[in-house]
Amino acid sequence: MPTHSLRHLNSFKLAANAKELIDITSIAQLDALLPTSGNTLILGGGSNLLFTQDYDGLILHNQLKGIEITQDDEFYYLQVAGGENWHDLVMSCAKQGIGGLENLALIPGTVGAAPVQNIGAYGVEFCDVCEQVQAHDMESGSKQVFSVSQCQFSYRESYFKAKRQFFITGVQLKLAKKWQPELGYGELKAWAQSLNSAPTPLQVANQVIAIRENKLPDPRVLPNVGSFFKNPLVSMEQARTLKFSYPAMPQYPNQGKIKLAAGWLIDQLGLKGYGIGGAAVHQHQALVLINKKDATSKDVVMLAQSVREKVAEQFGVTLEPEVNFIDAGGYSHLDKALTYV
Predict the structure, then answer these.
(1) Which residues of the chain have pLDDT under 50?
(2) Dmax of the chain from CA atoms?
C-alpha cells in the first residue's frame, strides 16, 4: 500500500504519512474528484496541524492560485484562490497601498485556511475583511457561496471548522479605501504613539512583522505551529477574582466575557524552556511549543497536557489548543490523543 510522507507538509515537521495525497491545482480537478467517500482531509500550508498518527485516508492539498482585484469609489474587492499564501497576499496589498490586512502579516498558512480558523492578530480578525467564502462540499460535491453571517465566525471558530466537509476554493475580501489603521493593541500602540504622522499600510505590516519575529520562532529554524493554545475566555466574575490575586494579569473584554493571555499564564509558571522528549516550550514565547530536536507526536501531546494541567492547577483556567489534532481517522483533540500516546 503506497504511503506519502507528510513531514514536509506540516510546520511541526513531525513524521507522519498519508495513504493517498493529491495536489489540487484546478477547480476542474476538484470537480472530478468530488464527492469523496471515506476519510478525506483538506491540507493547506500545514501550519496549524498536529499529526498524532499516520492518516488512514485521502489528503487533498489546496494548491489553487489566482488573485483578482476590482474596485469602486469606496472599496477594493479581492477575489483570492484558496491555495494562495496568506502572508504574500497581505504584503502585496500593503505594497500597493491597500489597507486592511496589514495587522495579519506573517500569519502562516493559506488563504483557504484563514476563514476556517478566523485568523486574527493585533485587533483585526479575518471576519472583519471577509465578504464571502466559496467552497465545495466534499460529501455532496456541490458548490456553495457563504455570506459572512453564514460563516458563523467567532473567536478562532467558524462554520467550516465545525463542519470540516468544505474545501475552500476562494474568498472575497472587501477593503475600505478610506482606511484607518488599527493600532490600539499591545506593542503596536506604543509604536504608533512614537510616530509623527499616520503610518501607511506597508509601515504597519512591517512593524507587525518585526513584533512577530521578535516574539515567535521561525518554523523553518525551530519547527512549530505558532500559538499552540487559544487565549481563554472566562466570565467577568472569574476575571475579577483572578485580577485580585494577580493584579498584573492582562485582561481584554470580549463579547461579554474576558479574554486572558494564555502565554502570560504559562510564563508565570516559569515554563519557558520546559520540555518533554524533543518538544519544548519556547524560551522566549511561552505560547509556542517547538520541535526542539526530533520530537515525536507523543512528545508534543504529553508536553501540551503537562502545560494545561499546570495552568489549571494554578489559575483554575483550562487551556484549549488552537492547533488542530489529526489522527488516523481525521480531526481529533488533545484528550483523545492522550489515550494512544
Answers:
(1) none
(2) 64
